[in-house]
Every structure is written in structure tokens, then in C-alpha cells.
Amino acid sequence: MKEGTAKKKNSDGENKGPVRRFLRCLGPGLVTGAADDDPSGIATYSMAGAKFGHSMLWTALLTWPLMACTQFMCARIGMVTGVGISEVFRKKFPRWLLGLMCLGLLAANAINIGADLSGMADAAQMLFGLDSKVSSTLFGVGIAAATVLFKYRRIADTLKWLALVLFTYIVTAFLVSPDWAEVGRALVPKWPAHSEQWSMLVAILGTTISPYLFVWQASQEVEEMKANGQTTRKERENATALELRDRKVDVGFGTLVSNLVMFFIILVTSLTLNRHGLTEIESTKQAAEALKPLAGNAAYLLFSVGVIGTGLLAIPTLAGSAAYAFAETFRWKQGLDLKPTQARAFYAIIVASTLLGVSLNFLGVNPIKALFWSAVVNGVLAPFMMTGIVLVAADRKLMKGQPSSRLSLAIVSLTSLVMFAAAASLAVL
Q1: Where does the record place a coiled coil (predicted)?
Q2: For residue 7, is pLDDT > 60?
Q3: What are the structural domains, with CATH classification, of the chain?
Q4: Hey, how many other C-beta atoms are within 10 angstroms of the C-beta on 90?
Q5: Longest Cα pair distance anywhere in the chain, in angstroms?
Q6: pLDDT > 70? residue 15
Q7: Which of 155, 145, 215 has its CA nearest to residue 27?
Q8: DSSP structure string for 60-87
């Protein structure tokens, strides 16, 4: 079925003004893109700016198109097939392989949740004087409870508004008055000069193009359609050209915001920490505390508030993506509109992955080492998943006659090769 003749699922929006149409487009793509800038990602970008100054700014130009094409391909799979990525994978790959993927995703996400909760707890301690173990537990339990008890539409709308917190980092960058001519010169790509820069490049790729985002993007497309009344798979199959165009705008903007925030965090820490010789930053807490005497209270407060806000946005995404992967692979009942008693196993994964993250803060696990091992798992898992995504997106039968374009397939294939190379480099370095 061609895009132009596909069954139209949403008829509104054609005649709205450009601003209203743009705002109506924003949804799963914005939330997924914003969730990429979680506290662990902020820590990685802060380390890049502190350690290497402006020299890593160009990476934002590299990661945006790669991330945007990959996420839109995942969105397209969900919109056209009417099911999540893991469920489509079942038609192409053996279940034992998908089981390993689910376990890897759960492990990486739980570690990432632990690191995010640690960053949020540090921010709460700086802002309000709360004990870090108490606040990390409160954050974890509260987020898990809200994800289980609230309906999809309420969760989606809350996450969409939380995306606004990312702009605190853009505002922070302007508070430190950058030399824009110097910044412009730094955007010319440079080959990493030594192993430490290679390691940082791998870390940036791993934290920006992550497997949990692939699963979450496609599954949220399905949740959106269910919330709009398309409760059966047949009703959800195929997408109109308008729907695909709207989602392309949504994903493009969401990934643009994500990579802009990455750019400005590197810039802020480069202009403040790196220039004052503070190159060994190992956490968001160190970055925020170092900003205070160098850039003032406003920058310190915005940076710290941003850590909490991004954690509230990212943790439901991390926990939810693991739950969707398991449920779709093993045919469990799933969906954020179902009651806990209707989808026990699905919600059990959400709660378990969050509580595993909480437990890491009581076991004395170093969050930086945790992030490293999370990056290792993601670095190995991501290119394999991306290869599967390309094979599915190119399959005319699975994609109901609406496969991805050759250009998109080429870009995502290139991205998977880059990620394979990154994983190999990480092993060597």
C-alpha cells in the first residue's frame, strides 16, 4: 500500500496554521530525543568539555543526522506495522537471539537508571540538602509508581512538558558569553589526536545513539495510535504521507534539541572548567559545583535543576523500553493504558529495572564505572539492533508496502557501521 493511498488514521491538522501544525506534530519524537539527554549523558558531555575543550564540539554535527535517521526509521516501523520493534523482530530472528537482546537492554538500562538516579540525588543534595540515598530512593520509587499508575496520555504529556527543562542548558551557555567566532572554528571536524579522545568519541556515540531509544520510539507510536482509538493491529497498520511527514518533523526537532543541548553542555564546560584547568570532572555534581565560582549562581542552579528534570524524563523511558522489549518478544500483554493486574509481567519489568537502579546507589557502585559498563553493553548491542532495524525497514512485506527510502537505509546502515567501529575501538582502547 503506497503512502499516498494508505488508510488515513488522523484527519485533522491539514488546514491548521504552521505554528499550530508544528506543535501538533510534537510527540514521541520530541520525548525520545529529549530523553537522550539524561543525567548520565550530561555527565559524559561535561567530561568532554572539561577534558578536551572546544575540540569535541563538532561531534554534535555528526550525531544529529545519524540519530535523526535512525529514530525516524524506528518511528516508521511502529507507524506502518502497528507493533513495536521487538514484535517485528520476532518474524525475522530466532527468539533466543531476541532474549539475549532483551537481557542486554535490561542490564544496560538498569545501570543507566542507577547512574541517572545518582546524578539526580547529587543535584537534590546540592539544591535542598537532601541525603543522596534517601532522594535517590524517593525519585526511583516515585517514578516507578507514576509509570505504573498513570495512563499513557498523562505520562506522554508530562514527558513532553519535561522536555522544556533541556533549554536550561542552552540558557546557561549564553550566561558564560562565548566567543562565537572561536566556536565556529571548532565546528570543523578533527580526527581524534590520541586514545583518550577516541575513548570520548566512543562514549559520546554510545550515550547519544542508544538501543533503548529505538525500542521506545516505535512502541510510543503504537501507544499513540491506541490512545487515538486504534485498538486492533489491523486498524494501526499503514501510515499516510501526512502522518509520516508530521512524524519526520517531530523526530527531526526532537533530535535537534537533543544534540543542541549536547553541544551547549560541552561548550559551557569548555568555557568554564577547561579554561580554568578543571579537566578531571567525573560527575554532574562536580561539574555543577565547579560552575558556581566560575559562572555564577544562575548557571549553577540551572545546571542542577536540569539534571533533576532530565532524570524525571529519561528514567521512565529507560524502564519502559526494557518492558516493551520483553513483552513484545515473549507475547506478554503490554501497554501503559492497561491496569497493573492486566499486564503484570510488563509492569514488573518497569518496577524491577527501576529498583535495580536504586539498589546500585546502596551497593556503593561507582557511577562512572557503571556508566562505562553501560556504554560497553550499549556499544555492543546498538549496531546489532540497528542492523536488524535496517533489515526490517527494507522488507516490503513486513513494512506493508511502505519500506524506508534507499537514502534512509544507506544512512542508518552507515550509522551501524560507525557504531560497530566504535564498539571495536572501545574494546581496543
Answers
A1: none
A2: no
A3: 24-428 (1.20.1740.10)
A4: 16
A5: 61
A6: no
A7: 155
A8: HHHHHHHHHHHHHHHHHHHHHHSS-HHH
Of 155, 152, 158, 93, nearest in space to 334 by CA: 152
**In Å, what is the CA distance from 91 to each residue of 349, 397, 398?**
23, 11, 8
Can you read off the three cell numbers belonging to residue 222? 503504537
Reference 43, options 32, 31, 51; nearest CA is 51
Per-residue model confidence (pLDDT) at position 101: 93
d(CA 150, CA 399): 32
| Helix/strand/coil percentages in the chain, nearest 5 | 75, 0, 25
3-state secondary structure of 228: coil
The whole-angstrom separation of Cα 124 and Cα 134 is: 10
**H helix runs in 13-151, sequence order:** 18-25, 28-35, 39-52, 59-81, 85-89, 95-128, 132-149
The contacts of residue 108 (CB under 8 Å, 6+ apart) are 211, 212, 374, 377, 378, 381
Residue 379 pLDDT exceeds 80: no
Its pTM stands at 0.89
3-class SS of residue 257: helix
For residue 106, which of 419, 294, 276, 351 has the smallest C-alpha distance?
Answer: 351
Task: Return the pLDDT at 2.
Answer: 45
Of the candidates 89, 131, 170, the residue with the CA atom closest to the CA atom of residue 385: 89
**Which residue is listed with cell 523482530?**
89
Closest CA to 88 of 404, 422, 407: 404
State the pLDDT at residue 153: 86
List Cβ neighbours of 23 (8 Å cut-off, separation of 6 or more).
none
End-to-end CA distance of the chain: 48
CA dist 263 and 286 (Å) reads 19
Yes or no: say if 226 and 235 are a contact pair by the CB < 8 Å rule. Answer: no
Cell of residue 298, nine digits:
544562575
pLDDT of residue 126: 87
Distance CA 316, CA 320 (A): 6
**Phi, psi for residue 26 in degrees, rounded to 5:** -70, 130
Identify whether the C-beta of residue 192 lies closer than 8 Å to the C-beta of residue 426. no
Count of positions (residues) in the chain: 429
Percent of the chain with pLDDT over 90: 51
Supply 157's cell numbers. Answer: 504529556
Measured distance CA(413)–CA(262) in Å, rounded: 24
Q: Count CA atoms within 13 Å of residue 340 on its CB side.
A: 12
